[in-house]
Amino acid sequence: xxxxxxxxxxxxxxxxxxxxxxxxxxxxxxxxxxxxxxxxxxxxxxxxxxxxxxxxxxxxxxxxxxxxxxxxxxxxxxxxxxxxxxxxxxxxxxxxxxxxxxxxxxxxxxxxx
Length: 113
Fold this sequence. Notes:
The protein is mainly β. About 0% of the residues lie in helices and about 50% in strands. It has no helices and ten strands. It has strands at about 1-5, 10, 15-25, 35-40, 45-50, 55-60, 65-70, 75-80, 90-95, 105-110. The chain has a six-stranded mixed beta sheet with strand order 2-10-9-4-5-6, with no helix packed on it. Strands 1-3-8-7 form a four-stranded antiparallel beta sheet, with no helix packed on it. A hairpin with a 6-residue loop joins strand 4 (about 35-40) and strand 5. The protein starts with a strand and ends with a strand. The relative contact order is 0.33.
């Protein structure tokens, strides 16, 4: 299982970013996927999840209405569209297939003026 996150960066409060996660080594379309984040000094937390077919999604209360998770099974890629970003969204973001133990390297998101 290999997961490669990209799309992070520095953005001002209120801005937007779109994260991508390219997956390989498993049958991507058969598995739910999730995005997690870890801020400095904090535990890793679940941000959003999506079912294998993309029909069902759920979100942490802290991002509901601002973030959207989606996937393209033809490209083996899961996305996280992040709008109305806040400084408290600053973290390293990771994608994961919950049934596997593997993590990618993550992508840094920094929200600061």
